[in-house]
Amino acid sequence: PYSAALAEHYTAAGDLAQAATFRVQAAKLAQSQGALEAAALHCRAALQADKQTPLSPLCRIRALRILAQALFGLRRSDECLAVYTEEYQDLKGGSLKGLARLVAAVVGEAVEQSRHLLSGGKGAAEPPSEPSRTLLREQFFFTSLGVELLVLRGRRLGPLRGLLRCLNLADASADNALRAIASAGFAYALTLLGQSRLAGRYAAQADCLIRSVQDPVAALEVRRILGLLYMGRGEFVLALAALAQALQLAEELGHEEG
Q1: Where are the beta strands (DSSP E) in the chain?
Q2: Which of 35, 77, 87, 165 is the most buried (most CB within 10 A)?
């Protein structure tokens, strides 16, 4: 309540950037309370202010992420998709020739990542600062939800581009939880492209990375993706094991929230 009131106060005072910051805080609170319509309204107001007074990159991407999640939860998928395609023009459709180039880029990225892993990560950049890491995480989760929506819509180019973006964001963040999620998603994409051997490497990498961190939310996402991957490959024992782990994590997280 205080965040919404402060947003109105700063709006009346003409400080739109500060008002937008409190709008996003109000949206986050509304989302946590299940008030998705209110969360979406707060985010739209913050993004409208961005057209007059540029917001900080973190405030803007957080508003986009919460807005997309709220619309997704409200089953307003057309509006949710519009949020992504307006922000990332390259997630829109493309030609078969474009798909062929993208497949080559995906496989090339996988090979490069494999070389990086075999080298033991030598030559890696310094870990980002905490503010930079927070921004990268917001960008990652905004993009990953867009990938899922595009997959549900039966798109081909958009999800692949989004997954490449997620992989790069995760690597830049030096966050093993994000790397695990991105690796699992990349493994799923490689499976669809018929690159079973590379897909297996990324699935194993995702499993190894998620075991190295204590992040049940990320672990739930990784197990869910790997369960779908194994199911698609006909590896039903592995699929059932991964999905059972995902269900257990979901129950534990539900009890914690309760």
Answers
A1: none
A2: 165
pLDDT tens for 134-178 read 999 999 999 998 888 888 887 767 777 888 889 889 989 999 999
What pLDDT, in 10s, does the model give residues 201-240?
A: 899 999 999 999 999 999 999 999 999 999 989 999 999 9
* Torsion on CA atoms 93, 96, 101, 103, rounded to nearest 10: 90
Tokens 């090979």 correspond to 111
Give Cα separations from 193 to 81, 102, 103, 156, 188 (angstroms). 24, 11, 7, 11, 9
Rounded Cα gap, residues 189 and 186, in angstroms? 5
What is the CA angle 224-228-231, rounded to 5?
Answer: 135
79: which 2 tokens? 């509006």
The candidate with the shortest Cα–Cα distance to 25, out of 10, 160, 12, 14, is 10
Extended strands (E) in 51-171: none
DSSP H or E segment with residue 194: none
Amino acid identity at 31:
Q
The residues, ordered by sequence, that sit 6+ positions from 127 with a Cβ below 8 Å of its Cβ are 133, 174
Asked if residues 239 and 209 have their Cβ atoms less than 8 Å apart, the reply is: no
Element holding 236 (H helix, E strand): helix 236-257
Whole-Å CA distances, 120 to 46, 200, 202, 253, 255: 43, 19, 16, 34, 39
For the beta carbon of residue 77, count every other beta carbon within 10 angstroms.
13
| Token pair 């798909």 in the structure block, residue | 99
